[in-house]
Here is the input.
Amino acid sequence: MSFPHTLYVIRHGETDWNREGRFQGSRDIPLNAKGHRQAARNAEALKAKLAGHRTTGDTPGFVTSPLSRAKETATIVARTLAIDPARMDQDDRVQEMRFGTWEGRTAEELKTHAPHQLKERHRDPWHFRAEGGESYADLAGRLSFWLEGVERDTILVTHGGVCRVLRVLLLDDPIEELMRGPVPQDKVMILKSGSAEWI
Here is the structure.
């Protein structure tokens, strides 16, 4: 899709469930100590980037997922950028995708509890939906709706699944390529229509 603005996308810092490899989805899991350090690192990287590329008074929007791991990260970013946390918009549409009955489980546990679902997800990761959850295609629907309302360059503090889907929506590469690989918690993704870079 065509998108005329720049998104400064920050995945929330690490949680204990990230460290343990558990599906979090809609569960409200707080940052751990490493997550706080990652958020501080990303805040400083974004501060340096914005200082070099923006003019006085040209302030980006600031949106965060309402889940606590994102809000904690966003608060650290806001403090570093001298942005009033009250300026942060919370938007349910940029929450992580829901994993339903998978939430709280690791992939290793699912090999025992839901092996057929794991195979189905491997065959079609874009459309697979765990029981009670969402697919990446579902997530793309609500993110497309959110993107249509973005009116200026925006800082977005969000989640790994959202980062992947935003890349699918705004880049021209095949879905299979964009869905593979990790989404770093210690880097900022600068995303425009047709291009992405990590800092």
User: Anything to note?
Assistant: The mean pLDDT is 94. Residues 65 and 176 are 26 Å apart (CA to CA).
